[in-house]
Amino acid sequence: MFSCPHQVTNPLVDKYTSYQGANSSTIDEMMYKLPTYQVMALPNFTWGSIDGGHFLALIDQAYQEVVHWRKNMFQVPWGTSGKQFMSELARLFQAHAEATALESVAITAAMVMPHLLLQRPNMKSKPRDHASCPTRRMPSWLEGDIQGLLREARTIQLHLGNRAQSCRSNMKTDSSRKFANYMKKGDDRAAGRFLSDEADCGVLSLDECIDDGLHQLVREILKKKHPDPAPLVPDAVLDPGL
User: Fold this and answer.
1) Where are the domains of the chain?
2) Distance of CA 64 to CAs 13, 59, 135, 145, 183, Å?
3) 138 near 172, Cβ under 8 Å?
4) Within 10 Å of residue 30's Cβ, how many Cβ atoms?
5) pLDDT band at 31 (very low <50, low <70, confident <90, very high)
6) For the whole prediction, is pTM greater than 0.85?
């Protein structure tokens, strides 16, 4: 029988081994105790004339939509309108940091607000045309008229989609000709880089069907890629005794 004089022990493993004879309640109490955390404040607030719960639902619904929009926001303008926009954004971040009644909606509202207040009126609009947009839209935001702001932004996004589709159809022939010229020259690297630059990018909807022969939804494809859940490892749980 041999013994190792330099045997290294793990205190967590030793403690877990000593728990093998204990009942499940003892193990749950001593090994699997998670650190305490502060519960998020309930939406007990009023936004304009809308109660907190209703406004929270409106913001969540708006967020699920605006993340799929085409990029069409202008920079925060100088002057009074820009200061008012930044003050409202700072108010939301401060509400989350201080765990006020707005905590449950603050971060989501801060992500949605630029999409609704900083939408360019059209693709040819100039910076001088943008200064009045936040000033005109801010009262609707403070009143909680999220649906009204969404309707305006949807109309703008619809025009962007139609214009982009028209531009792509006009450029399709030119793109094919450029790719063919690269291949005729034997410049495969430039041809591949050109295809990568021309490819459309963006966030796919979970309910969008992918035309890969199997006609699967994005949600189904992601579920197949997600690994199976693994059992709990005691070493990964915080031990209050250490």
Assistant:
1) 1-32+204-242, 46-156
2) 45, 9, 25, 17, 42
3) no
4) 16
5) low
6) no
